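Team,

Forwarding the record for the chain on the shared tracking sheet. I've put the sequence and predicted structure together so nobody has to dig through attachments.
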Amino acid sequence: MPSIGNLVAVTIDCSDPAHLAEFYKNLLGWEITYSDENAVYLSGSGMRLGFQRVENYTAPQWPGQDIPQQMHLDIAVENVEAARQKVIELGARSAPEQPGGDSWHVMLDPAGHPFDLTTAY
């Protein structure tokens, strides 16, 4: 079946787009291609990753579903533990629950969004 369109961007709700964009800029090595007070976009690898300000933003409480995750990204890395240390230095933290065993490690970005570090390319 032919596609109707192509995925070109993923946009994440947050309270501080500039701060969260800076975290992902450093994590992915992408560049900021658009920025205003309410939204920031990064570009790289043929994709855009956007961050938009949401008034009264509430962070997800993963793994619980009282405030469900609003999205998550899988980030392919060569070494999960080395990558985990680097993203902690950027402002992320390890999630308290780790269901992935040796396959992936769940991290929480500075706004509380879960993302996975994985070697499963």
